[in-house]
Amino acid sequence: MADTAFDKPEYYTNRESSWLKFNARILGEARDKENPLMERLKFLSITASNLDELFMIRVASLKDMVHAKYTKKDISGMTPQEQLDLISQEAHELVKQQYSTYNRSLLPLMKQCGLEIVTEHEKMTAEQAEVADRYFEETVYPVLTPMAMDPSRPFPLLRNKALNIGALIARKEEKSEKGEKGKNGKTEFATVQVPSVLPRFVRLPDTAEGAKCVILLEELIERNIDQLFSNYNVVCAHPYRIMRNADLTIDEDDASDLLKEIQKQLKKRQWGEVIRLEIEEGMDPKLLKILKQELDVKNEDIYKLSAPLDLTFLMKLYGLEGMEAYRQKPYQPQPVPGMTDSIDIFAQIREGDILLHHPYMTFEPVVQFVKQAAVDPDVLAIKQTLYRVSGNSPIVRALAQAAENGKQVSVLVELKARCDEANNINWAQLLENSGCHVIYGLLGLKTHSKITLVVRREEDGIRRYVHLGTGNYNDSTAKQYTDCGIMTCSEPIGEDATAVFNMLSGYSEPKHWNRLVLAPLWMRDRFLYLIRRETQHAKNGLPARIIAKMNSLCDKEIIAALYEASAAGVQIDLIVRGICCLKTGIPGVSETIRVRSIVGNFLEHARIFYFLNDENEEFYMASADWMPRNLDKRVEILFPIEDPDIQERVRHILQIQLDDNVKAQVLQPDGTYERIDRRGKELLCAQEYFCEEAIREAKEAKKAHEEASDPVKTRRFVPAQADV
């Protein structure tokens, strides 16, 4: 990237700022009155969880850079310290909006809908107080560990993300100058962790009006905190919560055993540098001073909150029994068109490539693909990459069973999958104990590709069956994330799949690739070639268009290529759910680029790429976004969609998303996102459309199957023809 007309910092948005705008769009769903109450609570919870991750990973990384006096600027021309300043400003504003939404909109609406959260324990009824106090005595009190700080006891170690209650306490026998015991005299700091092993909220008896009532665990502990310090008077007590640097730093060159090194780093994650302190608004200044001093936190890293800390508890509240009327009706994934449980899955794949579109279509064929392979006597080998899997994964169980059945099973388990490291370590050990050959990731790279290869012996020889996808092999998130994939027994793709696993296990690079394109070696160049080909078509006066759907767009070289294409006249439509560092509407640079973000009930996760190519259209799917980490630091797979019928389905998916005017928001030249003006337009919500379409197609397929199997409807009477 030499200096070009498209390489100016002012043409790019800071990555973290763009991410915060994405979280603001999620918050917009919590503020949207058209969404049911419990869905709004869920979206608010998601914004809190996302913000936690931003601080633990991205902010932590920037702080490390500042500590190391690293001053290199990002693509928008900002130093690490300037980025931290911007994040602090925008994050404080976002948190302010979070709590405004909670206090002004959602709390009153909850009460209106028959759900009340007790915010002051003094206001409980006698019956509620009795239930609450009994629960404290029997369940909470035995779990609590109060810790005091004095000359003989240093400030306690506080776990990352744990909710705590800090208190100032004074000995009862000590008298102040005013003669009042325990007041204005010498105070000491004490703290108690709100136990994460217990539910965050406690169900209380309904109110007189019949409303469901809950009290938060920290409020219950505060109510009974005197019992924890029986020889002291509690001067004040306030909840607080810390966020630590949780960015794993692993020197892989020195890590002889990656598994043990990651296990060691996971333990360190609990005690990293404190990068954020959340406190209750109105905290006693003396108590706050102690926390600031002991945790070494600056004022800009302190967030004073006017409601419960850690709003992620709202996700648990979302599932509260009896509130079904205020939740969106859960969607049941539908059968994949043309597939049936009564026919061997390998026979169905031999009939032609199969498109999977989750969660509208069920994830079950992917599970069955591995399960059937595990018990099929003709299957010789199963090879698979695992990045994130569910807590009780049927796929992992099937792989273990396959190995026990004597099949050759090779599994790459990515131990460096962020926030899933511990889970993946457990699965890797289970697979290894079952006899699978387990690869613990690759040196210096994350393996993020989603590929499964089944090698089967058949009458006409060895045949390879392959599943390729944009999402994880996780049967749980497959019901919540929108992803695509294909199942195929294409010989060229089968050869490539074998080469992929040979690379992963033995570092053997094939002489050539048939269809698949891999990062970090070839994918960047392929994308740049495809974009620049459209640019050349436009310069030659030919039709040129690009449609790309992904999670994030922040790669400078890709964005610069898109700017060059736009300047040449290529029409570019981008569907980018989250981070987008590209700016639209720059004269002569990005005037033909449109960017939209869809935030809905499902998390948009698929990666789909379309290039017009002078009417010789090309469709691709990938495990990768257009981000430096995906293109340069991960093993990713880009795969073509070549079946004409599936191409039409993919075109349909993209077009419906481009037509969405309910959940889509469009990026403006000033960096803000605006909802589409619906006036005079027929409303179209892409996610709802796909749900309804899948249900309709499943009904039609069921009806056709019933008619085909009905002997009365299939019987035909043909009159005999007289001989002439």
What's the story with the biggest beta sheet?
10 strands, mixed
Radius of gyration: 29 Å
Q: Estimate the helix proportion, in percent.
A: 25-40%
Mean pLDDT: 90
Contiguous uncertain segments of 5+ residues: 176-184, 250-256
Query: What spatial form do the alpha-carbon principal axes imply?
Result: globular
Derived structural class = alpha/beta
Number of helices, counting only DSSP H or I runs of 4 residues or more: 19
Question: What proportion of the residues form beta strands (DSSP E)?
Answer: 15-25%
What distance separates the N and C termini?
83 Å
Work out the number of β strands. 27
Give structural notes.
By secondary structure, the protein is α/β, with parallel strands linked by helices. It is built from 19 helices and 27 strands. The strands form four sheets. Strands 14, 18, 19, 20, 21, 23, 24, 25, 26 and 27 form a ten-stranded mixed β-sheet that branches. Strands 10, 11, 12, 13, 15, 16, 17 and 22 form an eight-stranded mixed β-sheet that branches. Strands 2-4-3-7-8-9 form a six-stranded mixed β-sheet, sandwiched between helices. The relative contact order is 0.09.
Spell out the blueprint of helices and strands:
Elements: H1 15-31, H2 37-67, H3 80-112, E1 115-118, H4 126-140, E2 147-149, E3 163-171, E4 188-193, E5 201-204, E6 212-216, H5 217-223, E7 232-244, H6 258-269, E8 274-280, H7 285-295, E9 302-305, H8 314-318, H9 345-350, E10 354-358, H10 364-375, E11 379-386, H11 394-404, E12 408-413, H12 421-433, E13 437-439, E14 446-447, E15 451-458, E16 461-469, E17 481-488, H13 491-506, E18 517-519, H14 523-539, E19 545-550, H15 556-568, E20 571-576, E21 593-598, E22 603-604, E23 608-611, E24 618-622, H16 628-632, E25 634-641, H17 644-659, E26 664-667, E27 673-675, H18 686-709, H19 711-714
Parallel strand pairs: 1-6, 8-9, 11-12, 12-13, 14-25, 17-22, 19-20, 20-21
Antiparallel strand pairs: 2-4, 3-4, 3-7, 5-6, 7-8, 10-17, 11-15, 15-16, 16-17, 18-25, 19-23, 21-26, 23-24, 24-25, 26-27
Helix pairs in contact: 1-2, 1-3, 2-3, 10-11, 11-12, 14-15, 17-18
